[in-house]
Design goal:
By secondary structure, the chain is of the alpha+beta class. It has two domains: 111 residues, Aspartate Aminotransferase, domain 1, CATH 3.90.1150; 63 residues, no CATH class. Helix content is 42%, strand content 17%. The protein is built from eight helices and six strands. Strands 1-2-3-4-6-5 form a six-stranded antiparallel β-sheet. A hairpin with a 2-residue loop joins β2 and β3. α2 packs across α3 and α6 packs antiparallel against α7. The protein starts with 6 loop residues before the first helix and ends with a helix. The model has no long low-confidence stretch (mean pLDDT 90).
Length: 198
């Protein structure tokens, strides 16, 4: 799906969740947050800091709180979507047919704003360098053009691909994953780009 420039355009192209995302947007618009598009989806910022955003997926839609780890979450609505990876971000998922508790959502957003103003922030240590697994190194030796295409990717995209190959346990899985990613790398796209441009 192509990237959008405005929240109106983002919502207009949703095949599902259109009404629900409009409702979430109306809640965010009751706050002082600045509405922007970042990574292809609606994001709300305060003084240049990421506070929250929302997005629709195949089976659910969600609000992301960028520093959600600091929210009290008295109603137990938040989860860490990538346990072991995500340090600060928390997600509030909504399933089909679930009512959006507008006042409660607004309370969570207001608390996130207060936390942002208070400077509560998890400092993320950026990974430096890329550790290339042997299986990928062998593929580079066999195909110099593939290696050149890989070197043109950003370090973040290189890490995504290297981790994708390194986490495969069996040789057959590594081979299948390599077949999948070679055309993507040669096109200059990242492994997870399609999820970033919902």
């Amino acid at each position: 799906m192509a990237s959008t420039k405005t929240v109106d355009a983002f919502i207009a192209k949703q095949a599902q969740w259109k009404r629900e995302l409009e409702t979430l947007r109306s809640i965010f618009q009751k706050t002082e947050l600045l509405e922007e598009i970042k990574w292809g989806s609606p994001t709300y910022t305060l003084n240049g800091k990421l506070v929250a955003g929302f997005v629709g997926f195949k089976n659910h839609y969600a609000i992301w709180f960028h520093q959600g780890v600091f929210l009290k979450d008295l109603q137990k609505r938040l989860l860490n979507a990538q346990e072991g990876k995500t340090k600060a971000m928390r997600q509030w998922r909504f399933e089909r047919g679930e009512e959006i508790p507008e006042e409660l959502v607004l309370d969570y957003i207001q608390e996130a704003i207060e936390n942002c103003l208070a400077g509560k922030e998890v400092k993320i240590e950026r990974r430096v360098g890329v550790s290339i697994p042997p299986y990928l190194k062998d593929a580079f030796k066999k195909d110099a053009g593939f290696h050149e295409a890989f070197k043109k990717l950003t370090p973040g995209k290189q890490r995504e691909y290297a981790d994708y190959i390194a986490t495969a346990k069996q040789e057959a899985t590594k081979a299948k994953r390599l077949d999948k990613i070679m055309p993507m790398i040669q096109q200059g796209v990242g492994l997870n780009d399609k999820y970033k441009n919902c």
